[in-house]
Design goal:
278 residues, alpha/beta, Rossmann fold, 6-stranded mixed beta sheet, 12 strands, 33% helix
Length: 278
């Protein structure tokens, strides 16, 4: 039986931004422990800022981010890193570092001042490389990899950290559709096997609805709506959050909702072709 993470992560009346520019406004969010949460929304709505603030990379202007009821800014850094991991958007690797060395850095929070590298560390790194199908890249420099390969290596480092809460900012960036599905399947396996709480920012609404237990739609720095995918991914919410007309249908494979955008143009149907013929 899978043991779900018991750690709680919440934002309370959170306002944050960069310099004098505020991006988040009085935002409240409770992340369901042991579940997969996907955050969606239009560009510049504050999705990445929210993840950065909830991981302590960014200090809030007002409000609080609470881990187990305590401000993350009062949690010792190493203790926080053992509980909460972050894969930011477009991370930068040190020049010349190999894949194996980068993934091994995910074990740093588990290394005490005088502790040595252990078999458990080896197993965590090997497992992360295997899960992301990057084992054959282990000795290659990260800066020689393609964008998709590099993204999978960063995900491997996050997995090697073995935290109970994992935040990922657009983890499918640079990946083709088959690798996107592989990564999301991998995160789902991690959630099912270890009960890891996963919070990820995704651009693809349909993948978000298919893989998330909990969907959060943001608009203009606030949570517009959150809940089960079937309750969040509605035509009215898509209209309000994205300014897009759409139709929502049910995925025959997963039973989850699928959003079909309605643009100004549509494909010509066989009936249209018959009607247009002289």
């Amino acid at each position: 039986m899978t043991v779900r993470s018991a750690h709680s992560l919440t934002a309370s009346r959170l306002s944050a931004g960069y310099g004098d520019t505020e991006i988040l406004y009085e935002l409240d969010l409770a992340v369901p422990p042991g579940r997969i949460t996907a955050i969606v929304g239009a560009n510049a709505c504050g999705k990445s800022t929210l993840l950065r603030t909830m991981s302590r990379l960014l200090s809030p202007h007002r409000g609080h981010v609470l881990l187990d009821g305590k401000s993350i800014h009062r949690t010792p850094p190493r203790e926080l890193a053992r509980t909460l991991g972050l894969l930011p958007q477009s991370p930068i690797a040190p020049e010349g570092i190999t894949v194996a060395d980068l993934v091994s850095r995910g074990r740093h929070p588990h290394q005490g001042l005088f502790s040595r590298w252990t078999r458990k560390d080896d197993e965590a790194v090997d497992g992360a490389l295997t899960a992301t199908k990057t084992t054959e890249l282990a000795e290659r420099p990260v800066d020689e990899l393609s964008g998709g390969q590099r993204q999978r290596v960063w995900i491997a480092m996050a997995l090697a950290q073995q935290t109970e809460i994992l935040l990922l900012d657009e983890p499918t960036t640079f990946l083709d559709i088959s690798h996107q599905v592989e990564v999301l399947d991998l995160l789902t396996d991690l959630n099912h096997a270890r009960g890891t709480t996963v919070v990820m920012v995704l651009h693809d609404l349909n993948l978000a609805a298919r893989y998330a237990d909990h969907l959060v739609a943001m608009a203009k720095g606030r949570v517009h709506v959150s809940g089960k995918p079937e309750d969040v991914l509605t035509e009215e919410n898509v209209r309000q959050v994205f300014g897009l007309e759409s139709r929502i249908v049910t995925d025959p494979t997963s039973g989850r909702p699928i959003m079909l955008p309605i643009g100004r143009h549509r494909m010509t149907t066989a009936q249209d072709f018959k009607e247009d013929r002289p």
